[in-house]
Amino acid sequence: MKKRDYLLYILIAIICILVILIFAKEVLSMKRLNPVAAKVEENKINIDTNNVKIEELSDYSVRANVPIFMYHWIKDDTGDYAYPENMVKPDELKKQMDYLHENNYDVIFVSELNSLQHYEKPVILTFDDGWEDVYRIAFPYAKELNMKFCMYIITDLVGTPGYCTIEELKEMKESGLVELDSHTLSHPYLNELSAEEVENELVGSKNYLKENLGVDSKVICYPSGRQNATVLNIVSENYNYGLLMDGGVFRYNSDFSNLYLIPRIYAMRSMTLDTFINYCETSLVNVI
Ligand SMILES: [Zn+2]
Fold first, then answer.
1. Contact, 209 vs 169, CB < 8 A?
2. How many helices (H) and strands (E) does the chain have?
3. Cα Dmax for the chain
4. Pairing state of beta strands 149-153 and 68-71?
5. Is domain 48-287 given the CATH code 3.20.20.370 in the classification?
6. Are 249 and 282 in contact (CB under 8 A)?
7. By Cβ atoms counted within 10 A, which residue in 49, 74, 110, 200 is the most buried?
8. What pLDDT digit, counting tens, does each position of 61-104 carry?
């Protein structure tokens, strides 16, 4: 082989190595810039996308990251409750809501996940169980900021001590800022029930919301996130969306996403504002 050919091969080899090095540096710096996104990617839950095809095919696809935060109580004093992480402090919740307001996030309802193309920075706030704290603390502040949130009601417990009354739920619903949906009749582990019992919990709570609040509930929040194939089959006949307890940022793809297994972020008491903001900053919508 001629000396000139050798030089040519060496030159090509050097160019290849340079290209690989530049590419590797890009990938590494992307992960460094966005540690939460990198972490979300690592922890991505394995959603079964085979069993349900949600959306009609349209002329375009929507890809989005939607942080959906999950709360329960709003309390300063945790008392002797065994799971204080379920109790966000009122001031912390206000700081989080202020951040969303000041930074022009689109705080939407779960039922608006099928129209993400209209938003740029979607985020969802969800409150499980129907605690009265939500009416007393989150609702007045949401009205001040004109901010939406979602609430999941254990319908057998409406009006019992600590839970919202039917009048309070009505007032929130009529404000247009609160989307009320089902968290079953009695908060059982759905995966441990017979098909008949599951149907009773799912249809019974849906009927309650319809009859007492005029709500046509399209969202089921699985108690403790528990579900199985039987539950999902019955859910798909009665609801359009199902919410889990964890799983991180919802990575939505209009062609493939299973809207019956929507992950959420546990907004625990110890979550710092910085962590909350890092999750929010992953929010984005791409229309392809
Ligand atoms: Zn619950």
1. no
2. 9, 13
3. 91
4. unpaired
5. yes
6. yes
7. 110
8. 999 999 999 999 999 999 888 889 999 999 999 999 999 999 99
Distance 266 CA to ligand 1 centre (A): 12
**3-state class (DSSP) for residue 244:** strand
Distance of CA 167 from the midpoint of ligand 1 (Å) = 21
**CA of residue 183 to ligand 1 center, whole Å:** 7
- C-alpha 246 – ligand 1 centre gap (Å): 12
Task: Report the separation in Å between the CA atom of 72 and the middle of ligand 1, taken as the mean of its atom positions.
Answer: 8
In this structure, what token pair is assigned to residue 61? 């696809």
Which sequence spans correspond to the domains of the chain? 1-33, 48-287
Q: Is the pTM of this model over 0.85?
A: no
Contact 52, 259 (CB under 8 A): yes
- Ligand 1 centroid to Cα of residue 8, in Å, is 67
Task: Using the mean position of ligand 1's atoms as its centre, give its distance from the Cα of residue 58 in Å.
Answer: 35
Residue pair 65/284 in contact (Cβ under 8 Å)? The answer is yes
User: What is the CA(35)–ligand 1 centre distance, in A?
Assistant: 30
Tell me which amino acid residue 12 is. I
One-letter-per-residue 3-state SS of 55-68: CCCCCCCEEEEECE
